[in-house]
């Protein structure tokens, strides 16, 4: 039987979440690194043209939340990081959506897109993404115990750590002023699966 394969690009915080889960859950999934930018033929795999994508027998799975659920289903016994898809879904989806906002804002800035005309949209979109990120971090900080979901480390903690560590290497901003979040990310960042998936330094593509 063909092994399952996870397609990723270096640096993607969403793919890093899946890669750390594969390592820590000891799953038989081959990880396949793709070059950046992704080839247009990748739209045949995922109509959104994005990684991560998980291919298992007869199935092509995305986006990240769906992959995390599939990987959890592949585990044989419950082990850290824990995942209760029904209970954890809101926090996981909001955390990943915050990652989408950070990535979208970074894309605008890195692409060198400047306003070329009058803003008729009513909001500054980069500022709006920044506010979305700050308010989501406040919301998550207020809900945290020792970890984001009760007293056990979960997939939500891994997702948050992958996104905030990505921001450090790609679009740094102040997030360590929230003590619970800062501790969670600090603890996770020293683990083996995080050490094995550190993104390479950013290189501009021209
Ligand atoms: N919401 C998506 C986000 C995935 C995403 O943004 N992937 C980026 C890498 S971090 C990507 O593949 N970008 C390629 C492109 O836009 O061409 C998910 O949860 O999987």
What does this structure look like?
- The chain has helices at residues 13-24, 64-74, 85-110, 125-143, 155-170, 179-189, 192-195, and strands at residues 4-9, 29-34, 53-56, 59-61.
- By secondary structure, the chain is α+β, with helices and mostly antiparallel strands.
- The protein has a 4-stranded mixed β-sheet with strand order 2-1-3-4.
- α1 (13-24) runs parallel beside α2 (64-74), α3 (85-110) packs antiparallel against α4 (125-143) and α3 (85-110) runs parallel beside α5 (155-170).
- Glutathione binds next to α3.
What would CATH call the architecture of the largest domain? Up-down Bundle
Write out the distinct hetero groups bound to the structure: glutathione
Radius of gyration: 17 Å
Percentage of residues in helical conformation: 40-55%
| N/C terminus separation | 41 Å
Question: What is the CATH C level class of the largest domain, in words?
Answer: Mainly Alpha
The average pLDDT value, as a whole number, equals 95
Give the strand line-up of the largest sheet. 2-1-3-4
Strand composition percent: 5-15%
- CATH topology heading of the largest domain: Glutathione S-transferase Yfyf (Class Pi), Chain A, domain 2
Number of strands: 4
